[in-house]
Amino acid sequence: MTEIPSFTGDASPYGGGDPYADYRTAVFPFTHLADLADRRLGAGVIAANDEFFAERENLLVPEPAHFDPEHFGHKGKIMDGWETRRRRGVGAEQPHPTEDDHDWALVRLGAPGVVRGVVVDTAHFRGNYPQAVSVEGTSVPGSPSPEDLLSGDVKWTTLVPRTAIGGHAANGFEVTVEQRFTHLRVNQHPDGGIARLRVYGEVVPDPAWLTTLGTFDLVALENGGRVEDASDRFYSPATNTIQPGRSRKMDDGWETRRRRDKGNDWISYHLVEQAEIRAVEIDTAYLKGNSAGWAALSVRDGAGEWTEILPRTRLQPDTNHRFVLASAPAADQVRVDIFPDGGISRLRLFGSLTERGAAALAARHHELGD
Q1: Mean per-residue pLDDT, 285-295
Q2: What is the pLDDT of residues 302-319, one digit of tens each?
Q3: DSSP 3-state assignment of 210?
Q4: Rounded CA gap, 351 and 126, in Å?
């Protein structure tokens, strides 16, 4: 198991200049996975017991936390994160909070799944971060209200035990619980501020939903597709190509550096399970002078041979290209090759699960507790 770097204690007071210059961070072994708490997947912070200084919704903002040293409001310093008021004891003789006093926020994951790692980011919270944090998870079908989740009927499982953290730092935690979760409860002990929350893991979709849909996007992140590898991630991550919706700007897709050799760039994906692809969309939205020139698509099943299902085809800048396939073999992996370099914003692969694929998905869903 890879040892996870940890940070504790205050950061130095802000002294001017780049506020991230003394930010403490590390390379965590799980951040290549999907962020299950991504707002683009539909995640949300649905409740918090306190958000006096800064709103709970800031926790899931996709961009890094911003710091403006001059930004003050009627309640004090305005922070780009979730910040609660200072807890107090019951009276003058007991002015300090008890060991059990803590603040909490309820997070609905955008895509239910197995959590492999959590990052509690306290960027810019230098002396006002929580002393410790803990994270719990639960799996509740449908769209439960905060009252439903806080009732005594819901079982919560500890993902991150109460652990001391540091200020102005990315605090990472590896999670080893093999269960499917739909909601998290983030606790800060006893109070303070958290800038961002990232929840990395593997999407595990509801097989009943996908079976009802029949034809759906087999590689979409929200449906359980994932990027396995890519030749180049210089400007933006390959996972952007399977995010929900259309790209909103150039860096919301996948763009490679300029090639100076005779090779080409590519991304390999794993479908939700074995399936048959019937239609393809390759979108180059917002990629105008840097879109891929041509693209080809190949599939394979398990460790079998790659079979080309879309030959090398010319792409246009800032355009959504649609292709209906005459036939395609059953497969669980796909590779898109672009020539020679450049980028695409989205890849959509429409089709349906095979009988074997549907059975495998149902078995995994059952194995993880649903």
Answers
A1: 95
A2: 999 999 999 999 999 999
A3: helix
A4: 50
